[in-house]
Design a protein that fits this description.
single chain; 3 domains; binds magnesium ion; Dna Ligase, domain 1; alpha+beta; 385 residues; binds adenosine-5'-triphosphate; five-stranded mixed β-sheet; D-amino Acid Aminotransferase, Chain A, domain 1; nine-stranded antiparallel β-sheet; Rossmann fold; 18 strands
């Protein structure tokens, strides 16, 4: 039995445990808020502190990239951490991320790194409006971002960013990355695995829709082969450069036939949750296989599949389960506005069938809690007709 310690005790560790148990894996989670090792499905069960967790594990991995650097160092010193602390830190710092992309000559949005007011002014001169400013550290779900649409907003935005940076709790200096807003047609992501032997397996590109900066719907359906090949090449370049092991997610903007990388996530990713029903081997299982040195599982799309995120709600009408090929995945989290509480996966044998089921589910959901889902579902159905 392989023993895996996950840094972070949220829904991703939980789903790794659910995927790992048929493989006879023992998954524990390190809760960074309490500094205790817990059972991913029953956090009241405690298995000691980080040192105990490290000693008891065969492999250590992470479910999020904002892990304190001293924790990463302690794990890496054991020789059990996969992916490496370098890869995790890159995912948690947009400055390092941009440097990696430049280094690998991977296309991304034009950007400027900002450390001072002088850099801020330089960024405004160098990039065309609108510009998006992102905190280098601690950003997720659209938090720590400011959009500059007209020059008059500059002073106010600078002040807000300055205050945000001053409040940073991070162990390394906070900073800002200014990026050209990209007039993208679609947002896509590629989730893939690279194992300890260098084997690579990627899932089909996923189309993602965000609402208020948070992922609301992902859709996995056959995509154009040239985009898939482009994304696969980027995945191979980045993971080989980092000698990466585990699941890596790459978020892209599609502009015409070109993919620009938005950001990378050195972990299982929300836009890959559909793999639980759309493929033979979900991302959680493939992450565990990759870090435990097992052969990777099939990543082909079996059936067109969509995922709807449940955000800030702790219940949905149970009737959604009456629609064929719908599965619910709750995370057992306390209800809080804006919090990811669970997700719904929906499959169809054809895209038309998926579109019809997606609409049936969307009709049952409260439009206040799922503001754009019905619109997106209707649009998807229209594209089928
Ligand atoms: P998450 O970690 O949840 O994916 P995040 O907070 O790390 O999100 P980003 O993915 O960088 O932030 O940005 C959130 C969203 O803002 C993107 O999915 C995209 O819709 C929009 N966005 C970000 N950067 C740009 C850009 N340069 N041009 C246009 N839109 C952008
Ligand atoms: Mg993102």
């Amino acid at each position: 039995m392989k023993k895996v310690l996950v840094l972070g005790a949220g829904q991703l560790a939980r789903m790794m445990d659910l995927a790992g148990s048929p493989l006879n894996m023992d998954v524990k989670a390190f809760d960074v808020r309490t500094n205790k090792v817990v059972h991913p499905l029953a956090p009241e069960l405690i298995y000691g502190d980080l040192t105990d967790g490290i000693n008891n594990a065969d492999v250590i991995t992470a479910e999020f990239e904002h892990v304190a650097h001293d924790t990463l160092a302690q794990c890496e010193a054991s020789g059990k951490l996969l992916p490496s602390s370098q890869a995790i830190k890159i995912g948690g710092d947009r400055r390092l991320e941009k440097a990696l992309l430049e280094n690998c000559q991977v296309a991304n949005a034009k950007h400027v790194i900002i450390d001072s007011k002088a850099d801020f002014d330089k960024a405004i001169a160098a990039l065309n409006l609108p510009i998006i400013f992102k905190s280098a550290l601690e950003g997720y779900d659209g938090k720590g971002q400011w959009r500059l649409k007209s020059a008059e907003q500059a002073e106010q935005i600078w002040q807000e960013m300055y205050d945000f940076i001053a409040q940073s709790q991070a162990s390394v200096p906070q900073g800002i990355v200014a990026e050209q807003m990209v007039p993208f047609e679609r947002e896509l992501s590629l989730v893939g695995a690279r194992s300890t032997t260098g084997e690579i397996a990627v899932y089909p590109l996923t189309e993602n829709h965000h609402t208020n900066g948070i992922l609301s719907v992902s859709l996995a359906a056959p995509v154009c082969q040239s985009l898939q090949t482009q994304a696969h090449k980027v995945f191979t370049k980045l993971t080989e450069k980092l000698d990466y092991v585990g699941i890596l997610a790459i978020e892209f903007f599609q502009v015409g036939e070109q993919l620009l990388v938005n950001e990378i996530a050195p972990r299982v990713h929300n836009s890959g949750h559909w793999t639980q029903q759309g493929t033979d081997t979900c991302q959680f299982e493939n992450h565990l296989r990759a870090i435990c040195g097992l052969p990777l599982g099939n990543t082909e799309l079996n059936r067109p599949t969509a995922m709807i995120n449940i955000i800030g709600e702790d219940s949905v009408p149970t009737d959604v389960l009456a629609t064929p090929s719908v599965t619910m995945h709750w995370y057992e989290k306390e209800k809080r506005a804006g919090r990811k509480m669970g997700h719904i996966n929906i499959s169809g044998n054809t895209q038309a069938e998926l579109a019809q089921r997606l609409n049936a589910v969307a009709q049952l959901l409260d439009p206040k809690a799922f503001p754009e889902v019905a619109h997106f579902a209707a649009q998807y159905q229209e594209n089928q007709n």
